[in-house]
């Protein structure tokens, strides 16, 4: 039974990629139409109901600033209380629903959770992969920031499910990067991975030995990234804009795009002159130097220092123990960031693999490992943040420490404080702070028990963290040995029922969408096929066999007629018919071209 | 967990070959339920001794991980996947516990039916004087958190504490070798082990308090 290829997906804050492991190594899969390998993580929900993904969506941001959702990843697994005032300038949120913590964007007249937005991106990457593989792709390895907590990981898995992808494994981004470098360089020893992505920062310390990639410690900041640098620069550029226009959403979107491109240019050049066109005519010009930019964002880059020192401390190593420091993420192209890395790790960063692609390539490798394609490599990753429960007095009581190798399990026995309690309530949290209220709430659940005197029931609760870093909880009555059902209510996530409903809705909508898309694609292909055939007939009349031209002309006329129909299948059939009748002719053109190149080449090259 | 309860046979659940306490079936490679009587040493295939060779421990952990890790059983049946998750988490627990001489010592006591003094256990008499002295300094620092002289003194205490803990752990290792050569399960040995571990635990808690006082 063929189960199709498993792909690796880097679901990034600013752009996303899909990769696959071939016999000769991992490679990123391009968009079948444009050949691009980076899909901007932008989704436009236009007022007419149309949904655009990628570059087209990003380009629509200036016109529809609130209907285009950029950097949705920043909100994965978050609640309304985590939304900042700055976020409210860039996004429009739906009013909170009672009893539901999950954030919802308001865009194109719809309400959308971050996993639904991310699912649009994943669906597009799935399409790229299917075009490349020539068969359905239903399973993937998806990367997440190492410092993502349980809710953020669950949200990522939910997004994949909504996109019709089963997540075989969530892999931490820096670990994936280490896999790609490990396969490439075969180095052994302790390495640091510094991953400054669009919206998140991770640092991981790994030990590489005999194909085992053991993560020793990880740290990071899920709200720190290249986006912050862009935003800082954009705020600075906005200072040049007349005050009356500064709040204008289109101007803000335009300035943000300009800031992003200016930042990239200043990695290669010392100074750039930028020009910003204003609504209603007029423009603003200014010259910006690299050193001015570096001064402007120095404190943002400095914020990566503390997690790096923490990770080295937790791993019990110093910079002198490192054999390599790997740079990952587009922002590490900035000379300022590279210099900072060198100061932190005492060595120039390793940048030999494209920092935008390295995570996806690693995810592709992990997909190969899981399907048995690479039995020589194994990842041993850790949980980034401690897990525990709220105990008496609002104290956070840890059950699983951070940086413990996963999978891992912990057990705790609970009892009741009051007679005749019918349930034990458990509040699960994640974080490093002493007080429960200072940590991130993951879920609450209640274990039903039979009424008994206080302190008599013995409920053993097992926390199991799987290889994805995701927690599951089971409970057992110690006296009877009976398993209890545990109804987990995620604090900021989607319930299974909500996901089911979303899936049903998207299937209904998807049928119309797919028909439209197939029709459009078939028409485009028909047009290009007709013009290519016409050109070939005109260019190589001498290569036509007797009577062959008539057959091709007839198939062309049939395709022209079919292109007017609303049925993509009919157009496809006509394309295939033309293909068949013109194939021998096309083959002769190919052979002729080949002969010509061979004939024209010097003998030594053959 | 259901997986643990399902253990009721001496043969592999998949191929019915007879099995030992190993996490994997030697015949068909299927992960096996963790035997109820398996201790952490047995799980890693190491001798049941207080002294552990770090290189041998790491090699055993890597080797077993290559076999039982969920990444190796992703394409197998859901039963095999569940068991691999269970076995792998047990394996990681074994490595984590046995790697650290203090955690290993605590596990040794547990294995031999001794209760372990927790974090809030009674103050070991040998430490009383210096603990009181340190706590006085910390209280003074809490009252005047920016006082540079006090900060310097507390920082010096932190350095001393780190050294003392290191020295005690090193001493513990020496004892382990000596006890292994004699009888590491003798009641007198277990008593001394418990006392030594309680002292280290106390010093560590104190070091954490000092860290916190300086970090704030």
Describe what this molecule looks like in 3D.
- The complex is a heterodimer of chains A (606) and B (216).
- Chain A is of the alpha+beta class and 606 residues long.
- In chain A, the strands form 7 sheets. In chain A, strands 1, 2, 3, 4, 10 and 11 form a 6-stranded mixed sheet that branches.
- The relative contact order of chain A is 0.10.
- Chain B has 2 domains: 2-99, DnaJ domain (Helix Hairpins, Orthogonal Bundle), CATH 1.10.287.110; 125-215.
- Chain B is 62% helix and 0% strand.
- Chain B has helices at residues 2-5, 40-43, 54-68, 78-99, 101-111, 128-143, 148-181, 187-215.
- Measure the end-to-end span of chain A: 43 Å
- Distance from N terminus to C terminus of chain B (CA atoms, Å) equals 42 Å
Indicate the CATH class of the largest domain in chain A.
Alpha Beta
The number of distinct helices of chain B, counting runs of at least 4 residues, comes to 8
Q: Which architecture name of the largest domain in chain A does CATH use?
A: 2-Layer Sandwich
Continuous helix count of chain A: 15
The number of domains of chain B is 2
* CATH fold-level label of the largest domain in chain B: Helix Hairpins
Per the CATH scheme, the topology name of the largest domain in chain A is Nucleotidyltransferase, domain 5
Structural class of chain A: alpha+beta
**Which geometry of chain B do the CA atoms define?**
elongated
Tell me the total number of β-strands of chain B. Answer: 0
Fold blueprint:
The complex is a heterodimer of chains A (606) and B (216).
Chain A (H helix, E strand, L loop, with lengths): L5 E5 L4 E8 L2 E4 L10 E2 L1 E4 L5 E3 L1 H5 L8 E3 L14 H6 L14 E3 L2 E3 L1 H20 L5 E6 L5 H13 L3 E7 H13 L3 E8 L4 E9 L2 E10 L4 H13 L4 H4 L2 H20 L2 E7 L5 E7 H13 L2 H11 L6 E7 L6 H11 L12 H13 L7 E3 L6 E5 L3 E6 L7 E7 L8 E8 L9 E9 L10 E7 L5 E7 L5 E2 L4 E2 L5 H44 L8 H15 L5 H33 L6
Chain B lengths: L1 H4 L34 H4 L10 H15 L9 H22 L1 H11 L16 H16 L4 H34 L5 H29 L1
Helix pairs in contact in B: 3-4, 4-5, 5-8, 6-7, 6-8, 7-8
